[in-house]
Amino acid sequence: MAAEHEERSHPSVGEYVEIGVILAVVTAMEVALFYADLARGFTVPALVTLTIIKFALVILWFMHLRFDSRLFRRLFFVGIGLALAVFGAVIAMMFLGGQTGVGVS
Amino acid sequence: MGEATAAPVQPEPGEGHYTSLGLSNEKMAMWALIGSECLFFGALITTYLIYLPRTGAGPGPKEIFDIPFTSVSTFILLMSSLGMVLALAAIQAGDMRRFRIWVLATALMGSTFLAGQIYEFTAFVEEGMGLTTSPFSSAFYVLTGFHGVHVAGGILMLLTLWSLSLMGRLPTSRAGAVENVGLYWHFVDIVWIVIFTVIYLIPAE
Questions:
Q1: What is the pLDDT of residue B205?
Q2: Which residue, A43, A21, A7, A31, is CA-closest to B196?
Q3: How far is Cα of residue B40 from the mean position of the Cα atoms in its chain?
Q4: What residues of chain A lie within 8 A of the CB of B76, using their CB?
Q5: What is the 3-state secondary structure (H, E, C) of chain A?
Q6: Percentages of chain A per state (helix, strand, coil), in multiples of 5
Q7: Half-sphere exposure at residue B186, Cβ-oriented, CA atoms within 13 angstroms
Q8: How many CB atoms are located within 10 Å of the residue A105 CB?
Q9: I want to staple B9 with a disulfide (CB 3.0 to 4.6 A). Which of B22, B83, B159, B165 is the partner?
Q10: Which residues in A lie closer than 8 A to residue B6 (C-beta atoms)?
């Protein structure tokens, strides 16, 4: 139970600045990838990977999920899980059930 | 009953209430709100992806999106998140002057992002993409518009913190309130991180 709401001290100002610089560099990489004339099969997965890295950096360091109680992490990931379930259900309806009213041309 | 019962955490005066787990009620509520907002934006992004090919007679993403402009807006919003954590670190260290500088800088960066979004919407309408032009345009405006409303709400919260601090009504013991506003602000930022890639970069690629 103690580990359930165990909290560690938050990052220092220096660490926050380091994360900010990494975020700026990753964003620049995304834009560079967009303009680089590479195959879509490479660009799209690379963009998604860079987005996941930025997302993780913000939630873990800036939102302190790495340091705060696991309960907060669970509340957040339940929301993310439900959002992905909605996305998955709609995609399944489109591809498995054909046109379903929200038709895609 | 092998485990000793943990003594309830006693909050500092003015620090708010705590759950039986020793966690702040306010912070718990903010995380519950963020969790539910994930579902809200998840539904909007899914809707946008469904309608993405349905541009009708109107322009599509490749013709209309201005990637350099949106990249700058994205960079500003990301840096506002850095400003927010620096404001939190300042109030936790008891440096109220630095707190006010960073919280105001964060609000200004948020306002710049919002101004950019208003400019972008205006340019799109002038180029023939209105709210009802096509299912694609409706889904785009609803998604990015709702995000913009969230940014506006965050700016109001930041300016409220700044005003309270100026009036001397935001002591260091209320740093938890700043952290909760910060959580909301970072959430708005992570939603945009996803929007920037999924809505702007990938379809226009």
A1: 56
A2: A31
A3: 14
A4: none
A5: CCHHHCCCCCCCHHHHHHHHHHHHHHHHHHHHHHHCCCCHHHHHHHHHHHHHHHHHHHHHHHCCCCCCCHHHHHHHHHHHHHHHHHHHHHHHHHHHCCCCCCCCC
A6: 70, 0, 30
A7: 30
A8: 9
A9: B22
A10: 1-2
Q: Give the position of tokens 């709401």.
A: A5
Inter-chain CB proximity A31 and B67 less than 8 Å: yes
Q: What is the ipTM of this complex?
A: 0.87
The secondary structure of residue B6, as a DSSP letter, is P
pLDDT tens across the length of chain B (205 residues):
344 444 444 454 445 666 677 788 899 999 999 999 999 999 999 999 989 989 888 898 889 999 999 999 999 999 999 999 999 999 999 999 999 999 999 999 999 999 999 999 999 999 999 999 999 999 999 999 999 999 999 999 999 999 999 999 999 999 999 999 999 999 999 999 999 999 999 876 5
Contact A20 B82 (CB under 8 A): yes
pLDDT at A10 over 80: yes
Q: How many CB atoms lie within 10 A of CB A22?
A: 14
The answer for residues whose C-beta is within 8 angstroms of residue B25's C-beta and 6 or more apart is: B16, B17, B18, B19
